[in-house]
């Protein structure tokens, strides 16, 4: 299961730096990092030609939930051993497919009551279109075939433990060499929104491994720290790919961490109301799922807070770039409202924030973000 490289350089790809790209979960808001990635890839193409792809520039790409799907799209190989998708394809993918993945149903009679009953009796969406689409796009590609190292977290509800699908571990744990389609379906199986995903794998010796997975966002909606951890473990094990970098040499990491937006400037909930909530209210309130929001936003912010402190302590804060839009309001902060108006509104918000983000990213690139040390 030896990895095939799309370019002849060995990791770390850029001099003495280990390059990491991380993409948060967030449902339809994957449009936000998708747009940023398209800009980044276009800038790299200006430097290195139109065939340049993000997988050529990052030693590891990590993604959770919708970010896991983007990760697979950027790194799965085509018949020419190049990425199946260019970053520029991601936006159209979301615009075309999200309305079918998250169909918006209307309930003319007692809509609120009907939605509550639906929420209590099964997932909001059956996931059939998503499963079919992912299997069609990714085919029989497996984890070991990605064009650069990937890290995609999920959560196994049978063992009640995070299950991390990592390129770094495939040789040691062959049962984790699952189909990319199964991994993507698993990491996207958000509780109350999409059904849990079961599959099993078999290694060369006939050992069977069963997986009972839900969305990785319940444990690590921001997978940046996981990605750094997987590289660190590889260094500890003496991987020649990263010699002579030492395990705690975080100053040698160059990290871009992309969020999917959040409504921090908008008051979502308050203690006065939540003090009266029971199980039903925590599952559905104001068109969202508070318990899921609390887990996903909380875990993502905790990772960012910790990494910011670490990189500052090492005087390497310029090596860590977290891009997040905290100004989302109303329906654009939803993970699943996929009607045309909301997707158009999300693009408008994304475009306005993208002006600031693109300027920041271009400034970083002008300061040799991807040049050899």
UniProtKB/TrEMBL annotation:
What the entry lists under PROSITE patterns is as follows: PNPLA
GO BP annotations, alphabetical order = defense response; lipid catabolic process
Gene3D superfamilies, alphabetized: Cytosolic phospholipase A2 catalytic domain (3.40.1090.10)
Q: Where is this motif: GXSXG?
A: 63-67
EC main class here is hydrolase
Tell me where the sequence motif DGA/G sits in this chain. Answer: 215-217
Q: Which family does it belong to?
A: Belongs to the patatin family.
- Read off the domain note: The nitrogen atoms of the two glycine residues in the GGXR motif define the oxyanion hole, and stabilize the oxyanion that forms during the nucleophilic attack by the catalytic serine during substrate cleavage.
Q: What is this protein called?
A: Patatin
